[in-house]
Amino acid sequence: MDILYIVSIMGVLGIFLVLGYTLIDTLSTLAGAKLTKIDLNFLKSLKISIYSSIASILLMFVPFVGLFGGVLVIVYLIKEEAQTTWKKAIITYLIRFVVLNVVIITLTLMALLTGIISVSELIYLLSNF
Question: Which of 18, 28, 56, 84 has the smallest count of CB within 10 Å of its CB?
C-alpha cells in the first residue's frame, strides 16, 4: 500500500476525530447549560468549544498555567456567552466536565468491546501519560 494513501486516510480520520470531539464538547456544554437553566444555544456553545480548544493549545506552552488556565477560559467564556454569574458558570463547567468524560469513556469502552482498539494498544496509549 502506498504511504501517501495511508497518510491521506490518517488525515481524513484525524479531521473526523477533531470534528467529533468538537461536537461532543459542544453538546456536553449544552447539557450543562440546560441543567443549570442558563441561556446558551448551539452556536454559542460551539463558539465556546472552539475558543476553549484554541486557548488550551496556546496555554499548553505556558508553564504552571496550562490546565488551570484552560479551565478558567472555559468558565469565563460560559459566563460571557450566557450572561450569567460566576457560580452558574462554574456549575455548568463541572456538569460539562462530567458529561464529556462519561461520553469519552463510554466511546472508548465501545471501541474496546468492538475490537477497534485492542487492549494492548490502550495500555500503550495510557502508558505514555
Answer: 18
Q: Greater confidence, 117 or 30?
A: 30
* Residue range 71-114, pLDDT digits in tens: 888 899 999 988 989 999 999 999 999 998 898 888 888 877 77
**Burial class of residue 28 (count of CB atoms within 10 Å of its CB; 0-12, 13-18, 19+):** buried
Q: How wide is the angle at C-alpha 29 spanned by C-alphas 98 and 66, nearest 5°?
A: 70
Q: What is the pTM assigned to this prediction?
A: 0.74
- Residue 103: how many other CB atoms lie within 10 Å: 16
Strand, coil or helix: 83: coil
Per-residue cell: 31: 447539557
Return the closest-CA partner of residue 49 out of 27, 16, 79.
Answer: 27
- Could you tell me how many helices (H) and strands (E) the chain has, helices first? 5, 0
